[in-house]
Specification:
About 80% of the residues lie in helices and about 0% in strands. The protein contains two helices and no strands. The longest helix is centred in the N-terminal third of the chain and has 45 residues.
Length: about 100
């Protein structure tokens, strides 16, 4: 009796593994076909696309102190603005949670 039970379980497992691997193989084949098509399209578009590189920033070692100070101030302004936007987003989320929790109206 146990022999037939285990035979059926192992056979069912093998069939499941077969179908699972077959599905995985088909998914992989479709993915590789899509990657190949994307590569072909990228090669075709590569000849037509024009690339303009970004300007190289001035080396800090040779910049004037005023230029370095201005660059540092601009950097700090961007950082402060980003922090303020994040703070505003978080406050809006906290306010909406407080309304949902019934702490505020």
């Amino acid at each position: 009796m146990w022999f037939w039970l285990w035979t059926a379980l192992v056979s069912a497992w093998l069939v499941g593994v077969f179908f699972g691997l077959r599905w995985l193989w088909r998914q992989l084949a479709a993915l590789m076909a899509a990657v190949e098509a994307a590569g072909t399209a990228a090669e075709a578009a590569g000849g037509r696309a024009s690339f303009t590189p970004a300007p190289v920033p001035e080396v800090a070692l040779f910049a004037s102190p005023q230029a370095l100070a201005a660059r540092q101030q601009a950097r700090w302004r961007r950082i402060k603005a980003r922090r303020q936007r994040r703070r505003d987003r978080h406050q809006a989320a906290y306010d909406s949670w407080a309304v949902l929790a019934g702490w505020r109206d």
